[in-house]
Amino acid sequence: MIKAGIIGGSGYTGGELIRILLNHPQTEIDFVFSTTRAGKSISSAHQDLLGQTDLKFSGEINPNVDVVFLCLGHGNSTSFLNENQFSASTKIIDLSNDFRLQADANFNGQRFIYGLPELNKSAIKAANAIANPGCFATAIQLALLPLSKAGLLNNEVHINAVTGSTGAGVGLSATSHFSWRNNNVSWYKPFTHQHLGEIGESLSSFGNAVGKLFFMPNRGNFTRGILATAYTKYEGTLEKAKALYQDFYKDAVFTHLSDEELHLKQVVNTNQCHIHLHKHEDLLLVTSAIDNLLKGASGQAVQNMNLMFGFPETEGLLLKAGVF
Ligand SMILES: NC(=O)c1ccc[n+]([C@@H]2O[C@H](COP(=O)([O-])OP(=O)(O)OC[C@H]3O[C@@H](n4cnc5c(N)ncnc54)[C@H](OP(=O)(O)O)[C@@H]3O)[C@@H](O)[C@H]2O)c1
């Protein structure tokens, strides 16, 4: 058994990590640090965990855990690590965007490896620190990586994606207020979303030219999940595109190509990414679907932990979708 610590335990991704790790056969939660709930039971924040654990939130860290997950808002991971020392052997998995870009990846003598297993599996296995990808970034990269590797992404790419309200974290804001969000839909940050940086770096990592990305993020009136569509010019056949994706994801345990059109609930509550391809005239339309809190955050973080510690990649992550 390895010992894990979680920082930011009362938030959404922190809660998802607690749920996953309580059922992970090779991990014991050593502490769940909280700035606001120290001494209170875990179920005071995550009521569904009533009876599942006697753990309480802690106001202190144990610097000697085997792995620590940072579930903090952007910028707070950097300050937390500056203020709190972990042992040299503690592996760090950060869920914020503090260390995702190559320019930010070196910190306090550590190199953070970008934690997308479908792209970086061997580097993740050898890593001591992981920058876990963003949720939109995961859905969009998994939709486009096979095309960029094949050198087929050199034209403009138009991307549209819709996310649930948990993507914005547990704090209440005007656009996550029930009265605003319910029965509503809107776009935000058109063409400028902060995940474009990490998406661009991964797509360019094969050395092939990548066309300009036009990304429209949308807020949906549901709680979990991301459905993304991307289309670009593509001259080949649909069968050739499918073969490309099948080959790229042949070793992927959670990313699968579907012949059927996708809907969001087929992946919600799972660590899966499902992808569908459609050809229209000279365009290829790629659709991808993930759960933003699992494959888009805490599930992928545990997938990375499994790889770093040599556990089976799917350990603790064989979850059931709530389709109906
Ligand atoms: N939500 C998603 O779908 C998603 C997906 C991918 C990546 N992410 C990223 O993952 C990170 C966490 O997201 P989240 O949705 O879990 O956020 P969240 O629900 O807002 O939770 C963050 C938690 O961090 C703690 N915290 C706040 N300020 C802090 C500080 N200055 N120092 C230490 N702890 C502090 C708070 O917990 P306590 O009160 O218990 O201390 C807070 O509940 C973010 O960087 C986010 O962008 C989120």
TrEMBL record:
Top-level taxonomic group: Bacteria
Gene3D superfamilies assigned: Dihydrodipicolinate Reductase, domain 2, NAD(P)-binding Rossmann-like Domain
Protein's gene: argC
Entry keyword annotation includes Magnesium: no
Semialdehyde dehydrogenase NAD-binding domain residues: 3-127
Substrates-to-products reaction catalysed: N-acetyl-L-glutamate 5-semialdehyde + phosphate + NADP(+) = N-acetyl-L-glutamyl 5-phosphate + NADPH + H(+)
The name this protein goes by in its record: N-acetyl-gamma-glutamyl-phosphate reductase
Native source organism of the sequence: Flagellimonas zhangzhouensis
Record-stated family: Belongs to the NAGSA dehydrogenase family. Type 1 subfamily.
Catalytic class of the enzyme: oxidoreductase
Pathway of action: Amino-acid biosynthesis; L-arginine biosynthesis; N(2)-acetyl-L-ornithine from L-glutamate: step 3/4
Record EC number: 1.2.1.38
